[in-house]
Amino acid sequence: LAPLVTKAKILLQELWIQKLDWDESIPLRLDTSWQNFKANLLQLSSISIPRYVNLESTAICQIHGFSDASIRAYGCCIYIRSQSASGVKCMLLTAKSRV
């Protein structure tokens, strides 16, 4: 969800930069971006993110972190990788973004 939330934060930041009054219309470019964002929200129903991390007591665990940045935002995510007799599992622990 972090990439989608980041897009919303950037759009909101662009609106604040415009310093519009509440009764003013937003510029067409930002309105188009908002309409595209709303259309993409429909795809969220197909995303499933398990929130429970189940580790076997005998598992060998590693934490892997990834990050990236642009001029507008940066983000990171942390995964836990466990290896046990039943196999290897990778699970998302957290993801964050800032604009």
List the helices and strands and how they pair.
Blueprint: H1 2-18, H2 28-41, E1 60-69, E2 74-84, E3 87-98
Helix pairs in contact: 1-2
Pfam families: Peptidase_A17 (PF05380)
InterPro entries: Retrotrans_Pao
- Sheet with most strands: strand arrangement: 1-2-3
Form type: elongated
The number of E-state strands comes to: 3
Tally of alpha and pi helices: 2
Secondary structural class? alpha+beta
| Major pleated sheet | 3 strands, antiparallel
Query: What's the number of structural domains?
Result: 2
Overall pLDDT: 89
Uncertain stretches of 5 or more adjacent residues: none
**Strand coverage percent:** 25-35%
Give, in order, the helices and strands: HHEEE
- What value does the Rg take, in angstroms? 19 Å
Percent helix range: 25-40%
Distance between the termini: 15 Å
Q: What does this protein look like?
A:
It is a single chain. With 99 residues, the protein is of the alpha+beta class. The chain has two domains: 1-48, no CATH class; 51-99. Helices cover 31% and strands 33% of the residues. The protein has helices at residues 2-18, 28-41; strands at 60-69, 74-84, 87-98. Helix 1 runs antiparallel to helix 2. It is elongated and about 60 Å long.
Summarize the structure.
31% of the residues lie in helices and 33% in strands. The protein is built from two helices and three strands; from the N terminus they run ααβββ.
